Every structure is written in structure tokens, then in C-alpha cells.
Amino acid sequence: MFNKPFKVKSNSQLKASERKRFFLDVLKSFPQLTAEELQNVIPNKEVIITMKVQTHGGQIVLVYCVLKDPLVFEIEKVMFPTVYMLWKFPNLLHTFTTWPDVLPRVLGGADLMLPGIVLKNGAHINAYGKLSKGDRIAVNMTTNKAPFAVGKAALSSYDMYMSGRHGKAVEILHFVGDELWSIGTRVTLPELGPPVENESNDETLAVVENNTRTLREAESYENVVLESSRVGASDENSGAISLEDDRVDKAVDALADTVAGQSLSEEAGLDEDAVAEGEKQVDEQDQMDNLLTYCFMKALKTTAKNADFPLLTSNFFKVHMIPACPEGKSLDIKKSSYKKLTKFLAAMQEKQLVAVKEQTKGVMTITSVNHAHPLLREFVVAEPPPSDGQPKLTVKPEITEMYVATAAVVPLLSQFLVKKGDNLQVPTIRKYITEYVKLKNLQDPGNRKMVRLDDVLHTCLGAAPEAQGVSWEDLIAGVLARMTHSYQMTAGQTKVTAKGKLEPVDIQVGKRTGNKKVTLVNNLELYGVNLQEFARECQHGVAASTSISAVPGRKSAQLLVQGNQVTFVANLLMGKYEIPKRYIRGLENAPKTKK
Q: What is the pairing mode between strands 558-562 and 546-549?
């Protein structure tokens, strides 16, 4: 479904009432999830973007994005989790396991066939579960339980069993590397370890039933509200979710107590391997606790040193703590002993490092930092901070447009040791074509502007069988038309080579509240432009406020400048940044000068 580019028909932010409905719809669609788990994935105050897209097959799909990642897509009122969502909750759907050799075929656009499913206990009546045709399915590998694809059952479980392992099992809708995955942060498949046998048991079913009852109570009770609706209509888009239903809280607590009780009852039967595994988990918790503390202290000593307080705890974690994490490591509060950010910050407050206050119910803020605290004064950042605290300045980009050798032209270019997938500049391609014509003596002696076609050139051009010759211009243009675009961008020490045409800097003029005009600039980062530096220059140059935000579906962040500033932005790009005019789109939106 998403293996080919899709068209975005609309893109908007969910309002308060829509956010509430979406939250409940997700819990209803995935009863394995608790409200607390879902809130960890969709933090309070975090914007939810909904996109209405049309697939290459003409199907309309709703896609919901949080923190730049698509989490859920909806087809005909049925919600499917994306791989980003499944990596957080690998057991969210019924899962079929396949061999690693099948992975390239699925990523190439193929569906999962019945012979590709691993049956741990052989083929029997319940080998494929208890599925109906069209049920949602996740697919993982024998070496990694992290799902790499999502689809729907092509047959019921009974029909799968009766088919004798012949035919299609899962119609794949979405997989790692497709166009839907590409609009997110493009995280590669995480390593979560091999699937555990009999992972789906009666306990899981009990959890689902309990959570379903909890959800029914939440739906029937009107106190499932947004925090923003309590603050006022003016803050409608803040999107904070506050679950105030005492009955829901009690049900969730009961669910946690039940799970904890089961764990305690099983503890007496732990063997030595289980004890060793428990000790390992404790060690991992200690390591994550130390990493959390380090990133917290580093954030206070560096990026958050001059931050304006009070500051939302979620923003502090996202904007300051995560960037403070050392390279090669990642923060995961769930793997720590604290489990929640609020508990970790409460511990830091007990040490009198910070003061944390509940601004409104469920919304926590850091009100102040004790910079005089001995622990903070003695803390030393392991990595060297930026020398002047300023972002790296932009370097003039060097753009080289190229073409990728495809299977159609390899018979011609292989004469010069060119392989499929190689990137070539236009002068090089012209040179190889000229040398080939001379080598094969194909230039028409009666008309030096014409080239006779041999079998190789016929194949490369896809020419009609009766075609005898073409002009030099048509020959070169025909070969280039059978190749795909690519480009190389060099900015200072950074060199990037990418397939496809280089998107131009896109300058648009839009309107915001009060019919005020704003200038929107996209794709600046593709040209090595530092957005913070560019935004400051716009602020000083036209005395207008600016903001930087992420837009789902785009490869780089968007810069907003108050007013119609197309002329200033274009002159800055072509002047200081030396970006050629042909790579700038939207100059016609500049305000007309009066004669």
C-alpha cells in the first residue's frame, strides 16, 4: 500500500475534542494498551498531526503522527499500528514469524505467503491462531521479535490450515523502508531479541479483557477530558490529556496489582537462570539510572543553563536531556528504576537540585534550578561543549547533479566498468557515449550529426525495431531519460549523495490568525543552511519574529517569518549563501513594487 509515493490531500493538527476521541479510539482498537502506556507514547501537550493521504492505488488513508513519527494509520475506520508503534509494543497484534531470508522479498513489495510462516509446533488446527479474514497481523523474524511489517490476514486461520501451506497468508500494507516509514524519523529496525515461544497465553487474554472493561468505563464517563479544555478555549490546541475518572484509575491500579501478584506468585519457582536474568535486569536499570542522571546534570550545565523557567518537564526532557545523551547510547526511562520522568525529577527535587511544581493537574513544570548545589558545581561534562555556545555557521554548498546507472543503460556503460547504481555526472556520460560510438564506428559517414543504432543502443534507448539512427542530441537525451536522477551536496566537510532530484528551496506566503501574512521557507537544511543562524539573520534584517517547526512529510524543518519577506529571503539565499537562483522556488510570491 505504501511501497509507492502517496499524495497528501490535507495536513492538520487535532483539536482538543478530536484529540480526546482519538485517544479513546486507539485504546478501543488496541485493548492490550493501558491509558498510562498510551500517554507515554503520546505525551501531554504534544501535538498530534493528522494527514489525509491518497495511495498510489487511489485508497484514502488517515495517518496520525506524534513527535515526527507516524504511529497509527486508519483504513475504512480500522486502525493499524505502524512499525514505529509496534517497536514500542511488539505484542500489540497477532504476530506471524518468518525467516530472515524472507525479509528482502517483503521489503521489495511482496506479500507474506503461507510457506514463509514458521510453525513452532508443526501444522495443526490452531497453528495459525484464531484469526478471521482481514484481521490485523504483524510480521517479525526468528532472530528479532521487532515487527518489520504490518498487514491483514488474507485467509481465516481455519482456511490457512486447510490450504496445506499453499497461498497467501498476509496482505502486507506497511513495512520498514516504505513511503509511510520515510515520513518519520527513519529509525532502523531495532534489535529486541528473538521471539519468545508461547508469548501469547491466557494471561495476555486476561490483560486484554481487563483493559477492555477499563476502556468501557472511561468511554461511559465524561471526566476523560483534555487539560487544555480546563485552562480555557484559548489554549484549545495545547492538547494535554487528563484522565480524572476515579473508577478508571482504580481499574488500572487493580490491573497493575494483578500483574504484580502473578509475578510474586511465580517468584518462588524461579530457577537459577531466572535469578541470573533478574540480576542482569538490575544491572541494566543501574546503568540507565546513571545515564539519566548524567544527561540531567549535563543538560543543566549546558543547553538548559540559560533556559527560561518555569519549563515543562516534557520539554526539558525532549529539548535538553535527549540531546545531552552521549553518542551511541539512548535514553529509555522505562528501562530505569524510575519508570517515569516525574518520579526521576521528584528524586532530583529531593536532592534539592531542582524545584518541580504541578502547574495544573497532570502538567508538571521545573520552576527553578539550584546552580549553587555542590553536585552541580562539581559535575564535569565528559564531552567537550561547543567552543562559543553558538551553532555551527553555514558553509557555501557545492551542488553536483548526477544520474544513476540503471539496468536499461548498463549494457552500454558497462564497457567503461560502470555498474548498476553508480552515480555519474552528465559530462562523464557524454564522454562514455561518444567513446562507445567511436569504438563501434557507429557515426554515419554521410551525416556526421547522426549515429547508427546497434543492438546495445536499441536496448538502451528502447527504440522501435525499425529505427536505424538518431541525432547526437537525441542519443544523449534518450540515454539520460532512461537513467534516474541523483545529486551530491558538499557543505564544508559534509558530503551527502542522495537519489532523486534535489528539491529546491521552497518559499511560500501563507496567512495566519487575523489575516496576517507569513513567509514559510522549506528545504533549507538540504542545502547545508543552519536554520538557527538563518532565522537570526531574518529577525535582524526585517525586524520580524521567526519560528522553526517540523512538518510531517518533509525532509527538513520549516522556517516561519512574520510578513511577506520573500524578497529579503531570496536575496539572502542568493547573496550570502550563494545558492543559485534555479534552486529557489516561489520568487513570484514577492510583494509587487509600486511604480
A: antiparallel
